[in-house]
Write a structure and sequence with these properties.
Belongs to the D-isomer specific 2-hydroxyacid dehydrogenase family. By secondary structure, the chain is of the alpha/beta class. It contains 14 helices and 12 strands. Helix 6 packs across helix 8.
Length: about 350
Amino acid sequence: MTIYRLAILDDYAGIARQHFDQISNLQIDDFPDTLDPATKDGLEALATKLKPYHILSTMRERTPVPAELMKRLPNLKLILNASARNASIDMKQATTQGIVVTGTKGNVPTDKKSLDALPDLPPPQGHSAVVQHGWAMLLALMSRLPPDDYALKTNPAAWQSGLMTSVAGKTLGIVGLGKLGIGMAKVGVLAWDMKVMAWSENLTQDKADAAAEAAGLPKGSFQCVSKQQLFEEADVVSLHYVLSERSRAMVGKQELAWMKKTGILINTSRGPLIDEDALIEVLKAGSIKGAALDVYWEEPLSQQSPWRKTRDWAKSEVLLSPHMGYVNEGTMHRWYQEQAQTVERWMKGEDALVRMN
């Protein structure tokens, strides 16, 4: 029998192996530390490390698999991706080399065996953990939870050292009215009676009305405005935009200067949507009330990253989380469960359930 070698990349939580362990004729190795193939040293280390493997288990937004890396992996036959998209895998090169790239759906399984093997279930259809995390960050920032928690645990005399900010009735600015932007906006309307403004390059009021009605809200619940009006009038600006060369640094010095001094910026989408240097400058000056970031320009953050030292330089409030928006227990386990099922099908010569190339 052929023995296949599987490399599990970037499994920070250490949960993947249990889903692959039951597969016969599979040798498994874990590589939890992310390396960047965009650097010469990172590419060399990855190519050397992964050369023996037939199968790679990847996690989106972690180690990229560019053409330069694939060309140096002659044994590679199958790439397992978490979710149904991953812009950091070079599909054209994979196809050229005859490498199969597969994805996952992340849906709730219907068979009892799969259900029983999961410690928790993914969110139901129509719901997103990213929206939950975005609201958790926003509410924590406006309710002063991080600084008050820190103060109570480190200062015996600390008690009510500041004022929280009410969310209700504020204006929520949504940059990118897609599935996640709509989810964020819907909570704002229904839970907090917020006024919702939305902007994207191709958004019209008709499209905003259709989005509102699809979410079960009255037409007019989302107001389509210009980019400048949104940044000038919103109390909270939340980013939900697809990263591309066109959208890179779409929030720069001008957009940040438009924001209210009491404004809050939330980014659970992609770090490079914001001009990093411009944001650091604004936070150093205290020009906005605060920022809550789940995504960064460099991931994972290096030990030298200025974001690890915001207590030393930021006058604005800064709340950080390590790209946790999609990292919920149910979805992560289900993705790895689906990857394992794909390996079993592939080893039998069967078609993948989610083929990406």
